[in-house]
Amino acid sequence: MKYSLEKNNSMKLLDLLQDIEVVRIIGNANTEVTGIQSDSRRIESGNIFVAQKGTTVDGHMFIAPCIAQGAGVVVMDDATHMPTADTEGVCYVLVKNSDEALGKMAHTWYGKPSQQLKLIGVTGTNGKTTTATLLYRLFKALGHKVGLLSTVVNYVNDESIPATHTTPDALSLNALLAQMVSAGCTYAFMEVSSHAIAQERIAGLEFAGALFTNLTRDHLDYHKTFDHYRDTKKQLFDRLSKSAFAVTNYDDKNGLVMTQNTQAKVYTYSTRSMADFRGKILEESFEGMLLRMQSNIGTVNTEVFVPLVGRFNVSNLLLIYACGVALGIEPLEALRILSSLPAVNGRFETIRSDKGWTAVVDYAHTPDAVENVLKTINEIVNSNATKQSRPAQVITVVGCGGNRDKGKRPIMARIAFEQSTVLILTSDNPRDEEPQDILREMVAGLTSEELQRVLIIEDRASAIKTACTIAQRGDVVLVAGKGHENYQIIKGVKHHFDDHEVVRMCL
Q1: What does residue 122 show for φ and ψ, rounded to 5 degrees?
Q2: What's the rounded Cα separation, in Å, for the pair 51 and 62?
Q3: How many CA atoms lie within 13 A of 256 on its CB side?
Q4: What residue ranges of the chain are covered by domains with CATH 3.90.190.20?
Q5: pTM over 0.70
Q6: Which of 236, 345, 349, 427 gives the lowest tally of CB atoms within 10 Å of its CB?
Q7: pLDDT tens digits, residue range 245-297?
Q8: CA gyration radius for the chain?
Q9: What's the CA gap between 128 and 145, in Å, rounded?
Q10: CATH class of the domain defined by 11-105
């Protein structure tokens, strides 16, 4: 079953304009509408066309063709496109913000689905997918019908629906939430990207809770400054009601900034300091971690083994644990189930070779994420150093995506170089850029002497195969950047490519 952007009913325009800042209306505001569209190519008779200003295309330029296709209402936020007088058969609505209007109208059109389930939003730079996915699995294990909206895949209870964006557009998002309600879901866990917040894709949604993972440099091609990126994320917490809850990372310097203006009840978590929920690594290997988990809620102090690795995953687990408790799960029961949940596809996913080396496939595509993964690998390698006849090598294969924040490219290369024995720089998703140009900007972070110790192999498959060929017993190969993705985007074309498949060819 696929979700539909259409409904077999109609609504009064005035009902759809609830809670929307309307500047002016020309025409009959009591008209009946048959659907809402922001894509001019999908317009049918009686539809509302919402004209939005995109990063490359201005929807206001398509008003006339949409009317010709039968649009009965045009919603816009550019007054220059408003008619000077009544236009027979078409109602024009000037609003303060078209993006916000679309979000709120979509929510109303689909029956305000966020009010009919407990919707939890997860935001931050790293860890959103792991957190949302494991929360989905936790509540499924408890017997609930649950929805998931994630970077990897969307779920309406047991039914999987491919994901195209971290957060879908407003119409698709509300259609999915409505489908969850129809399927009897009582909870939904959702990754909330900074783009989705900035573009008002979540406008109108009512969140029962919001979770903050961490904040490091990312998406500055879009947000321009780190402060704007941070403040955009913060809006999710600013909009929470008094009946909602927020869980924030006490170890991140931006953690308390996120919640400083929220009305929601705030919980904190930490791996280093006193907080409502605390965790510490007692033992660690590639098979998992033995943790000490403590909380002030229910006064828990216990040890638990989890099949996840890395301090960053301790933070993720604490966030999941805190959210579960805030939603009413008995603390020890939450920990019991969490101890059995496997890692998310492409997140510190280990593949063992019969030759004795280990590959780690990870989505790490930001400087901080790469550093966290490599630090974890090195900690495990160093803890096993006495068991090895030779020092283990950490061989890293990494690239940077095209048409994204260029400033992070030399930083990524620098971090990977400092944390690796052997560094292989390669292509990621070059998109519309030339791979050689991306690699040139990555190596700018290294000295000419350091470059003598770096391999540059543009073809990603060849780079991975080279790393696996170099690897010996006890070594670790990190393949970073793509994780769950099974494609490469080159000149606008998606080509099948899976890091896992290439690694397994080398086993």
Answers
A1: -115, 120
A2: 8
A3: 5
A4: 349-505
A5: yes
A6: 345
A7: 999 999 999 999 999 999 999 999 999 999 999 999 999 999 999 999 999 88
A8: 25
A9: 21
A10: alpha beta
